[in-house]
Amino acid sequence: MSLSVKGKLTRKLSVESGTSKAGNEWKKQSFVLDTGSQYNPEICFQLFGEEKIEMLNHHEEGSQIEVSFNLSSREYNGRYFHNVDAWRIESLNNTSSAEIQEAPEFNPSAEEEDDLPF
Description:
Layout: E1 3-12, E2 16-19, E3 25-34, E4 42-48, H1 50-56, E5 64-76, E6 79-91
Antiparallel strand pairs: 1-3, 1-5, 2-3, 3-4, 5-6
């Protein structure tokens, strides 16, 4: 199952880091997406690992993006905790000035010969 949502990147939270019980270094960063929905429009995603965090560095706050993600839940001491882990971030502002082609202007003074019978 592939889950994705589109919206505006409203906030990048600070990078968190630490060391696991096994002695491995880890980093994670969270960010908030505003989906524009009427109820509960904000979703907080997390990125785990430097490669995933690097994806977020290519997007500025306020930009329109699409986020692909996984949901997971874990039980700890009888309580469940949920993660919303982003694994792909794509820009929805793909149109660059080179890609935008203007339509030719209509110039009524440069009429061509009208060959219509009416």
